[in-house]
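Appendix B, example 12.
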Amino acid sequence: MTSRVQASFANPIVRFAIATAPRLGFSLVEAVPSRPTAALLRYLAVDPDGAGRGVGSALLDDAISHSRLQGFATLLLEVRDINARAIELYTRAGFVSAGAAVPHPLAGYPMQGYELAL
């Protein structure tokens, strides 16, 4: 995981946000060198004790607004295809499924792409 996070910081960072109260969480949005008009929500993570308390929504809203303010046309993400809570969060924000699920590069489980027109 450490090497994957370090690799993310090799791409231009659009936004790195940390939520500290009432629960911990963070998000990382990066530019996509192969798609200059797209940003990628690489990570959105919330302390499990904070689930359902708005931390994920606040971090997602922050990622969307900063991507839009920096002129990106699309925000992309991938989510494990069985993560119903996350998928509900993303679709409620307007993300739509994009293409077929692909295997996670390390674990192999299916990851579904989503995108949001900004």
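The chain has a mean pLDDT of 89. The chain has one domain: 2-117.
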